[in-house]
Structure formats: structure tokens, C-alpha cells
Design goal:
Blueprint (H helix, E strand, L loop, with lengths): L1 E2 L3 H12 L5 E4 L22 H13 L4 E4 L2 E8 L2 E6 L5 E3 L2 E3 L3 E4 L6 H4 L4 E2 L2 H4 L8 E4 L4 H11 L6 E4 L7 H10 L1 E3 L4 E7 L2 E7 L4 E3 L2 E4 L2 E4 L2 H5 L23 E3 L10 H30 L1
Parallel strand pairs: 1-2, 1-7, 2-3, 7-18, 9-16, 10-11, 10-16, 11-12
Antiparallel strand pairs: 4-5, 5-6, 8-17, 13-14, 14-15
Helix pairs in contact: 1-2, 1-8
């Protein structure tokens, strides 16, 4: 059973389907990158619409007999050795010998008017995904709850444009931080950010609480990344000091027979990295099942 039909889940399913395993992928239909018009940084798929990428992946999987279902998974529980019951919201429960959770994460944005509505379009967070498309344009970077991320982002975005303004908002900058930003060519504008200004379905600027508006055509902001790992936690998977579920390099969790891959355990995994993690987990899962197959065959003989 693979829970989550994004890059990680579908790639794992591809490897397992080609290994002639019986695979069911359940997907709730709410991919993280749905607001974006294009995905980038994925060799041979650069510029492809996220929806088209998923549709093509599903088409390929059906050729290997992989079953794909749509709907929410309400829970997973162990019912015996090498057996899990997967409870589905809209369908009868199913049993599986092993489970891969690839449910991704949720981006929590600062409480600033207009950010959520423009998210994935001209309000973004990853320059490697969106920097090229807004190169040489007036860019804003908004300070968020993650101070180190925000400061790093402000310096990094300067690589794509010579006109970058950093709005610390609630971040108090020390003198050294100001000097580094100034040396980098990043202008700092103080004051509480009230909203992003949109006109004719285009972002036009950043408005401050005192009424000032700084014209910008794109905004970078660091969200708080919240893993959608409730299923893993309910299964008793170990959680690290950083608050994320722990896996080994193959994606194996602390619970035997349970793997996790992609953004649910790695906040920085872009689509191509999530796909790679899915491939690694798919191979590891097949080897896990192979070991059980051999044990059963020996016992039967």
C-alpha cells in the first residue's frame, strides 16, 4: 500500500510494479504544488505542469498493473505479523504486507493578506524552482517565522536579480546582518507588512501598515513546513529531536514494514529528490518483501 500519489509515491509504485508486486496507490488529490503552473528542476520534465506530470505517471503505472485509487486514508493499523489494515474514508478497508507513506507536507504562510491567494504563482519560496522565471525583476523577500531561512533567502535571491528588497517584518536585524545584506546589494525596508498588492491578477507590490507601497513583481517568503505525518505517528514511528519522523537512508521507519518518502520526512525534497527517495524506498520495500517470501518458502518446505 502506498499512501500519497505525488512524485515519491508514484515512483515507488513504478519500481514495485515493475518488480511484479501487487501495489495499490491511494491519493487524496491535493498535491502540494497544485497552485503552480509549472514544475522545474526535473530533468526531461522541466516546465511541465504538475497535473500533467501526475497524469503521465499514473498512465505509466497502469501498464504495470498498479492499482490507483482516489480518496483519503483514515488510518493504518497492524493486524498481525506482516499485515496492516488500511482504513479508507470512501471505500472498504484493505490489507497490505507493507506500507509506504508519501503524504507530503503543508506550507503555513505568514498571516499577511494576499499571500495564500498568490501562492505558487508570484508568491513563492524556492528560487531553484521559480527564480529563473522572475529573473531581473523587482523582487521582495518577506521575513517569516524561520529567521535563519529568511536571512539566507534574502541573500540568495540576489543571485537572480539586482533589485531585491528585504522586508524583515517582525525580525529584528543586528548590525552584522544589516552589513552583510548591504554588502550583498539587498535593500532593507523596515515596517510591518500589511498585504501584497494585486491589480488585474498580477502582483504589483508590498504594502506596509503605514501606507507605503513598494513596487514589486514577485515575492519570496519562507513558510513553516508542517509534515502530514499523522498516519506515521499513529503507527508509533519514532520522531527525531527536530520533530520529524526518523527514517534510515532507504526510507525505513522504526516500525517494521513501514516506509516514508518525500516531503513527509524531508522538508527540502523537491520533486526530483522526492522521486529519487521513492525509487530508493521502492527497491528497499521489494527487498523487505523478498526476505519475507524466502522465510515463508523455507518454512513451508
Amino acid at each position: 500500500m502506498i499512501i500519497g500519489g505525488g512524485a515519491a509515491g508514484l515512483t515507488a509504485a513504478l519500481y514495485l510494479g515493475r518488480a511484479r508486486r501487487r501495489v495499490l496507490v491511494m491519493d487524496a488529490g491535493s498535491p502540494r504544488n497544485a497552485p503552480a503552473a509549472h514544475m522545474h528542476g526535473f530533468l526531461s520534465r522541466d516546465g511541465m505542469a504538475p497535473g500533467s506530470f501526475l497524469a503521465e505517471g499514473r498512465r505509466e503505472l497502469r501498464g504495470y498493473g498498479v492499482e490507483i485509487g482516489e480518496g483519503r486514508v483514515d488510518g493504518v493499523g497492524r493486524t498481525g505479523e506482516d499485515r496492516f489494515e488500511v482504513r479508507l474514508a470512501e471505500h472498504p478497508a484493505v490489507t497490505a504486507r507493507a506500507v509506504l507513506v508519501a503524504t507530503g507536507l503543508r506550507d503555513e504562510l505568514p498571516d499577511i493578506a494576499g499571500l495564500r491567494e498568490r501562492w505558487g504563482r508570484d508568491v513563492v519560496h524556492c528560487p531553484y524552482c521559480h527564480g529563473w522565471e522572475v529573473r531581473d525583476s523587482p523582487i521582495a523577500v518577506l521575513g517569516g517565522d524561520n529567521r535563519p531561512f529568511s536571512l539566507h533567502q534574502a541573500a540568495l535571491i540576489r543571485q537572480w536579480s539586482s533589485d531585491v528588497v528585504f522586508f524583515p517584518d517582525r525580525i529584528e536585524l543586528d548590525q552584522g546582518e544589516r552589513e552583510r545584506l548591504a554588502a550583498r546589494g539587498v535593500r532593507v525596508v523596515e515596517g510591518k507588512v500589511a498585504r501584497v498588492v494585486v491589480d488585474e491578477d498580477r502582483l504589483r507590490g508590498v504594502e506596509l501598515a503605514d501606507g507605503r507601497t513598494i513596487e514589486r513583481s514577485a515575492v519570496f517568503v519562507g513558510p513553516r513546513f508542517v509534515p502530514l505525518d499523522g498516519l506515521l505517528r499513529d503507527l508509533g514511528c519514532a520522531v527525531g529531536e527536530n520533530g520529524w519522523v526518523v527514517t534510515d537512508p532507504s526510507g525505513r521507519t522504526s516500525v517494521d514494514g513501514v516506509w516514508a518518502a518525500g516531503n513527509v520526512v524531508d522538508e527540502s525534497a523537491q520533486a526530483i529528490r522526492a522521486a529519487g527517495a521513492g525509487a530508493t524506498a521502492g527497491i528497499a520495500l521489494n527487498h523487505h518483501l523478498l526476505a519475507r517470501d524466502i522465510e515463508h518458502a523455507v518454512a513451508t518446505r
